[in-house]
Design goal:
The chain is an alpha/beta fold and 240 residues long. Strand 7, helix 6 and strand 8 form a beta-alpha-beta unit.
Length: 240
């Protein structure tokens, strides 16, 4: 199936709370909503799949009432199946698991949907795009990591861009409304290349928090840069 010739949906900007002040997460979430975030991402790390430890489901649940936009949980964990239900119950409308951590990826994605959430699958920089070729029917989002997971503030890896383009073609050929997200080193400069390659949803953390004109201006700058660089017909995603 060829890409649609209809006007593209606006790109989505999804801040990560990883650089936030953890002592005031409720306020931080509220500020991200006021800045125009389309969703908010929780980088969940278990100290096994990646070195760091971050947000448990109780922390996410405590912050949920402060948000007017959807939550997505990016599970960078060795055993995602054991945690799916708890993060959905905590208020995450989208749950992303790593293909590298799932022995039975199709089954895991089906279970996420069965819990009432949207399903996502993340690919580390070295993981081929074709890994998701046979699970697109059960996938609402594919996340192409543009850094190695586990730490904030890393530099964007341009070598992932051909994979982003390959994923975009696979999604277009499937005819399914699968979002294509990138995460890692996203700035107002690197977002242009990722958008040009076909991504429509962009995670930003360290750059956004450090932007001198504030988070609202950062969100607007990212969204504008992505829209200016997007191939005709590339869709953003769902604001939820």
């Amino acid at each position: 199936m060829a890409m649609t010739d209809s006007p593209p949906a606006p790109p989505l900007v999804v801040p990560s709370v990883l650089p936030a002040d953890f002592s005031r997460l409720g306020d931080e979430v509220r500020e991200l909503c006021e800045a125009g975030a389309d969703r908010i991402q929780w980088d969940v790390m278990d100290g096994v799949f990646v070195p760091n430890l971050t947000f448990g489901p109780d922390v996410v649940a405590a912050a949920r009432e402060h948000s007017t936009v959807g939550f997505e949980a990016h599970l960078m964990v060795a055993d995602p199946d054991a945690l799916l239900e708890r993060y959905v119950e905590a208020g995450c409308e989208l749950v992303i698991v790593h293909a590298e951590a799932c022995t039975h990826l199709h089954r895991t994605l089906v279970r996420i949907r069965g819990l009432g959430a949207r399903s996502g699958v993340a690919l580390n920089p070295h993981t081929p795009a074709d890994t998701v070729a046979h699970v697109l029917d059960e996938t609402d989002l594919v996340l192409a990591m543009t850094v190695n997971p586990g730490f904030g503030g890393q530099s964007y890896i341009p070598a992932v861009e051909p994979k982003i383009a390959r994923l975009r073609r696979m999604i277009a050929e499937s005819g399914r409304p699968v979002e294509l997200e990138v995460d890692g080193g996203v700035t107002d400069h690197t977002i242009r290349a990722a958008s040009a390659a076909g991504a429509g949803v962009f995670i930003s953390g360290s750059w956004m928090y450090a932007y001198p004109d504030g988070k609202k201006a950062a969100v607007e700058r990212l969204r504008t840069a992505a829209a200016e660089s997007a191939p005709h017909g590339v869709q953003g995603g769902a604001r939820r």
